[in-house]
Amino acid sequence: FGAQYFAVGLIYGGIPATVYGVFLGYLNVPAYVYATVSVISMLPWSFKFFFGLINDTVPIMGLRRKPYMVIGWAFCAVS
Predict the structure, then answer these.
(1) What pLDDT, in 10s, does the model give residues 24-50?
(2) Is the confidence at residue 1, as pLDDT, over 70?
(3) Average pLDDT, the chain
(4) What is the full DSSP assignment across 15-63?
(5) Rounded to whole angstroms, how far apart are CA atoms 9 and 6?
(6) Which of 7, 11, 29, 68 could form a disulfide with 33 if both were Cys (CB 3.0 to 4.6 A apart)?
């Protein structure tokens, strides 16, 4: 679990700082585009309560959290 928290911290801490530099410094996009990207990228965090309810009430193959973690990391790897 420690590696997962490290990876999540890296994703939520390192990527937004990199995106800021790339969008505003390198690509010269307007500030509203950066604001839109940052809001959309944080949208799943807003739904974590509902994902937690589904996670606890709908087990996959008798397991409650592990399959959902694997599915989430698979989505991260694909994106």
Answers:
(1) 788 888 988 888 887 887 887 788 888
(2) no
(3) 83
(4) HHHHHHIIIIIIS---HHHHHHHHHHHHHHHHTHHHHHHHHHHS-BTTB
(5) 5
(6) 29
- Calculate the CA dihedral of residues 3, 21, 77, 69 and round it to 10 degrees: 50
Separation CA 75–CA 39 (nearest Å): 19
Q: How far apart are CA 25 and CA 28, in angstroms?
A: 6
Give the CA distances from residue 14 to residues 6, 11, 62, 64, in Å, rounded to whole numbers and listed in that order. 11, 6, 35, 29
Copy the structure tokens of residue 73: 């990391």
pTM, 2 dp = 0.51
List phi, psi (to 5°) of 65: -115, -35
Q: Percent of the chain at pLDDT above 90?
A: 1
